[in-house]
Amino acid sequence: MYAGSLEKIIAKACKDAEIYANSSVHGVLLENMHDIPYLRHQHLSPETVAVMTRVCSEVRKIIPNQIPCGVQVLAGANQEAIATAQASNLQFVRCEGFVFSHVADEGFIDGCAGQLLRYRRFINAEQIQIFTDIKKKHSSHAITADVSVEETAHAAEFFLSDGLIITGVATGHAADEDQVKGVAAHTSLPVLIGSGINIQNLQKYLPYANGAIVGTHFKENGKWTMPVSKQRVDSFMEKLKTLEIS
User: How confident is the model at residue 136 (pLDDT cuts 50, 70, 90)?
Assistant: First the structure.
């Protein structure tokens, strides 16, 4: 939760951003991951959106214009993320609960595609892309157990998602390789790995995924609570470059 210093939050985010700005990453995603425990969007207060917009605006000044930046506002605050992105000149958002419903650790998350895309148009933000989690981490999907991940992907594509995100069961846990293969074979959308990618398993996902959101592996000692490690970022990107060439 907020510890009383907005300037410290901004300084920490900007320090991490400086590392990314001086590396070869293809994009940067911001989220309020340390704002624990998370609130569902209907209980989110205006100050969270205000702080996220301020932080994103400061980070956007650091990251070169040719590198796209995005935001996720936890938990399931997808309209708030779109508004933050529009105000901060970001290019995309990560959205949870786009299609179908699930029970997350914050509570029940319902599908939001219809409202979200209409809101995006309402604020003239249709240039902002929406990348959507399907069968996401930290959640129970028992209520949609009869709906496969491929069917979920199809529903997200039908409801005009710009890209799909596949995760493992929790932060830092790798996605199921068969799920990634299955979704990639059944969609025309970009498929991103949303958790658990590291320098050791990168090679096995590369043939099926169009990208990855790397968080835990980029942190010092591979712990998500730590600052970003330049050495780990550089080593990962060098490995990726080597694999792409080969």
Answer: confident
pLDDT > 90: what percent of the chain? 90
Nearest to 132 by CA among 197, 236, 174, 109: 109
Output the 3-class SS for 194-224.
CCCCCCCCHHHHCCCCCEECCCHHHEHHHCC
Strands (E) located in 73-190: 92-95, 102-104, 107-109, 129-133, 139-140, 163-166
Query: At 48, which amino acid appears?
Result: T
Instruction: Give the model's pLDDT for residue 137.
Output: 78
Domain locations in the chain as residue ranges: 6-236
pLDDT of residue 70 exceeding 60? yes
Using CA atoms of 209, 211, 213, 216 in order, give the dihedral in degrees to the nearest 10. 70
CA-based torsion, 207, 189, 145, 98: positive or negative: positive
What homologous superfamily does CATH list for 6-236? Aldolase class I (3.20.20.70)
Give the pLDDT of residue 124.
99
**What is the rounded distance in angstroms from the CA atom of residue 52 to the CA atom of residue 54?**
5
Which structure tokens are listed for 218? 């980029």
User: What 3-state class would DSSP assign to 35?
Assistant: coil
Please answer whether residues 227 and 220 qualify as being in contact, where contact means their C-beta atoms are separated by less than 8 angstroms.
Answer: yes
Q: Which helix (H) or strand (E) holds 151?
A: helix 149-158
